[in-house]
Design a protein that fits this description.
Length: 285
């Protein structure tokens, strides 16, 4: 497994591999890998084939953190991450410095302006600009045929798809299903912040999705609205005082606009706080 720290060295190597007709699959991550990341790496390998190239990036990107967020405290374990990548047969990892990715003075950003205007975009105003900027840079450096992202960050995945289409990147975007703990909590690096009691109550987010899905399917011909479905989940939240709901939204999965009538295929988006830890989840109804 090759490890690259220099953007230029990575790009040269990837261009050579592409000219040799090697399929390249990219898995961008911020490290602190868990089983969810591993599932994305395996999806990339399946797509690239046994002789293709799988590249994993391990980089905590500072531009997607707003002031006061957890950039400095974000969990990191590079040694463990490298061991996981090695065991999964990853061909190359990219672990750049901030100075190499954002050489001073730095002044160029990529900004998607439609899908990013709502939900997480309201709560974290500069977040998606940082995401689209770093992903664009990684696309240019690694020259992939395919890039794999997780559905847990659903709005982010839709924004990356939009950006890829708008900027004519010749890359296919694949999504991997959200992996969950046994009690339903979506796997996330930030789960490491949770206390035992917060961790126990955080499973309410998936319970809310399951309850909403059940209500909808019990009476699919009823005209369901967000207020009707939302009221059913409020009782669950009342039993979990350590979880503070930020927003609950029912959206069209393509436009991310609020759905007037909720039906099968509508996407339910959730964001909540457990103490200072921000949790997100989503599910198709």
């Amino acid at each position: 497994m090759k490890r690259f720290r220099s953007p230029g060295s990575l790009q040269s190597w990837c261009l050579k591999k592409r000219l040799e007709n090697n399929p390249i699959a990219l898995v961008p991550t911020m490290g602190f890998l868990h089983a969810g990341h591993v599932s994305l790496i395996r999806k990339a390998r399946k797509t690239a084939g046994p002789t293709g190239i799988v590249i994993v990036t391990l980089y905590v990107n500072p531009t997607q953190f707003s002031q006061g967020e957890d950039f400095d405290a974000y969990p990191r374990d590079l040694k463990r991450d490298l061991a996981i990548c090695q065991s999964e047969g990853v061909n190359a990892v990219f672990t750049p410095s901030h100075a190499s990715m954002y050489a001073s003075p730095y002044s160029t950003y990529v900004n998607e302006t439609l899908l990013s205007r709502q939900w997480e975009g309201i709560q974290r105003p500069s977040h998606f600009k940082g995401v689209t900027t770093i992903v664009s840079k990684l696309f240019l450096l690694t020259q992939p045929h395919v890039a794999v992202f997780g559905e847990k960050d659903f709005q982010q995945a839709m924004i990356i798809r939009q950006m890829t289409r708008d900027l004519h990147f010749p890359i296919r975007i694949l999504l991997g299903a959200t992996l969950r703990e046994k009690d339903g909590l979506a796997m996330s690096s930030r789960n490491a912040y949770l206390t035992e009691n917060q961790r126990d109550q955080a499973k309410v987010l998936y319970q809310m999705i399951r309850l909403t899905r059940k209500e909808l399917r019990l009476d699919p011909h009823r005209k369901w609205t967000s207020s009707r479905l939302g009221s059913a989940t409020q009782k669950l939240l009342q039993a979990t005082p350590l979880i503070r709901l930020d927003y609950m939204a029912f959206v069209d999965p393509q436009t991310l606009q609020q759905a007037k009538t909720i039906r099968k295929g509508t996407r339910m988006l959730l964001a909540a706080y457990a103490g200072k830890t921000r949790l997100i989840d989503n599910g198709s109804l």
